[in-house]
Amino acid sequence: MVIRDAKTRHFNEDGNLAYRVDAEQITYYQFKRRDRAELTEPRMLFYQDDQQKWRTESRQGAAYNRGERIVLSGDVEIDELPSPGGIKLQTPSITILPDKEFAETDRVVTISSGPNQTKGKGMRVYLDKDRVEILSDVKSNYDPD
User: What is the pTM of this model?
Assistant: First the structure.
């Protein structure tokens, strides 16, 4: 099944909007024990207390098992909202577990906030706690002004 200009909404147990996924196209595959959806130009928006908190964009993605795990790839950007003011994360690919509000990558990542920048290899993002961990090879540049 192919869906163009797709817009999906996902709610938490309390009935509040948890996140949404929009994509230029979703191609859905159903297998006997699992499913997969290929996403073209996916955009995700995560909410906290009914407010937009994190926004992701990438060139492509794949969602597995009804969206339990989403892998984004190709110029992945994650912005903390409101923007400007929040941090920007950039990496070639990242795996997101939307229901756990968690994301991770083993790839190189760049975190920017204004003129300040931190780079490293591997990252864990706890979206619900607004916490980011870079796992190794960390280098930072800070502008004191």
Answer: 0.90
Burial of 55 (0-12, 13-18, 19+ CB in 10 A): middle
List the structure tokens of 89: 């994360």
pLDDT, tens digit, 9 for 90 and up, residues 6-65: 999 999 888 999 999 999 999 999 877 788 999 999 999 999 888 899 999 999 999 998
CA dist 80 and 86 (Å) reads: 5
Determine how β-strand 69-80 pairs with β-strand 51-57: antiparallel
Query: How far is CA 71 from its chain centroid?
Result: 9
Q: Which two tokens stand for residue 41?
A: 């130009």
